[in-house]
Amino acid sequence: MADAKDLTKTNDTRAVQETQHALAADGEELAALLHSDDEGVLLALLKNPALAEADVTVLLARKNLPTAVIEEICKRRDWLKTYALKKALACHPHTPRLVSSRLLKELYLMDLVQIALLPGVSVELKRNAEDQLATRLPQLPLGQKITLARRGPPRVAGSLLAEGHPLVVPVALDNSHLTAAQILKALAREDVPESVVQAIAQHRKWSCDYNVRLALVRNPATTLAVSLSFLPELTVSDLHELAAPGILPEPLRKYLEAETQRRIRASEMSGKEGGLNRSMQHHLIYVCSLKVVLNEARETVWAFCDREK
């Protein structure tokens, strides 16, 4: 029992000595203490007058920094005036949520982009960074919007895509972070510009995505010729659903009904969906598309003649 008490007393004495040392250390000794695992030593270090802002930045680079140390740093208003410390605190996983949210509002645009895309950052922090970016979008000049469209996170790129600026749309569509979910979200908006719908339908990547094709067929801004070109790739169940009254324009809906019935009959005859070979299907779609284009051209000519009369 006596040995245990002596050991405890020794440990307490050592802790006091280390704390006192942290209060007065400087130079290399202070630099070494920045990597201490002892919370008491780190808290004492924050009171050391020799501790510089660069040293605090080193502390904040440690992802295992105790929450108590983070909270103590947040109380130092003189440190919070430094942009580097603001950014480090905003990114740290142990920074209190309210403090982190407040600091995000003060960060530069591209630092918010970095936080939103940085691996290892919490989902909540990424979302808050994206929220800040989305809030600033309406006030941004065109050049910054193009930069965000090229390098921004998925939600930001999707929002910029939906705005429909002709210089932003192609850049946003080529954004490597853009997801099909954001494309579908843009297509689902009632106010999405027709130019955006056409750009998606012609894009080399997104026009090949099945769910995007399905959304394009549903969208009233998609041309009839484009919708017809996508039909051979759609499943019978999706064709049947789209052919229900009230979903698509009547000319397209009637074709979908005919295509659905044709597929079903072909499936029954061959024992599998799509009895006709692929080349024949595309030939049929091409012929139908050509008829649509010719009919539209004929109606335009008639309208012009009527005006001339």
Distance between the first and last residues' Cα: 115 Å
Question: What does the overall shape look like?
Answer: elongated
Radius of gyration: 31 Å
The overall pLDDT average reads 83
Biggest sheet architecture: none
Helix content: 55-70%
Secondary-structure class? mainly alpha
What count of domains describes the coordinates?
3
Succession of helices and strands? HHHHHHHHHHHHHHHHHHHH
Point out poorly predicted stretches.
4-11, 272-276
What's the β-strand tally?
A: 0
Instruction: Count every helix, treating DSSP H or I runs of 4 or more residues as helices.
Output: 20
* Percent of residues in beta strands: under 5%
Write the layout of secondary structure elements.
Blueprint: H1 2-24, H2 27-33, H3 39-45, H4 53-60, H5 67-74, H6 77-80, H7 83-91, H8 97-104, H9 109-117, H10 123-136, H11 142-151, H12 154-163, H13 169-173, H14 180-188, H15 194-202, H16 210-218, H17 224-230, H18 236-242, H19 250-270, H20 278-308
